[in-house]
């Protein structure tokens, strides 16, 4: 599975969310493989890249977070218009 495959899967899952909802990266991993746990770190890495590009929002406890030092559970959602920027 390539980085592009992971990015497409993340964006597809996030784009399918109802407004105001979020998803867990494990939902993306479960969409991709029966043995999904090894995909968690690569999915988190790609989610961070997508957030850096303004295509995704990552939160913890409902609060937006950034950076590679994020620890613990995170949620993914579409970037808000304010967060979206030209890449």
UniProtKB/TrEMBL annotation:
Residues 67-87 are annotated as: Disordered. SUPFAM superfamilies: Winged helix' DNA-binding domain. Pfam families: DUF3253. It comes from the Bacteria. InterPro entries: DUF3253 (IPR021660), WH-like_DNA-bd_sf (IPR036388), WH_DNA-bd_sf (IPR036390). This is S-adenosylmethionine tRNA ribosyltransferase. It comes from Paracoccus haematequi.
């Amino acid at each position: 599975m390539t980085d592009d495959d992971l990015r497409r899967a993340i964006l597809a899952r996030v784009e399918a969310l109802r407004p105001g909802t979020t998803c867990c990266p494990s939902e993306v991993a479960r969409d991709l493989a029966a043995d999904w746990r090894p995909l968690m770190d690569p999915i988190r890495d790609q989610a961070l890249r997508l957030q850096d590009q303004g295509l995704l929002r990552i939160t913890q406890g409902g609060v937006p977070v950034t950076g590679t030092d994020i620890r613990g559970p995170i949620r993914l959602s579409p970037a808000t218009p304010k967060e979206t920027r030209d890449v």
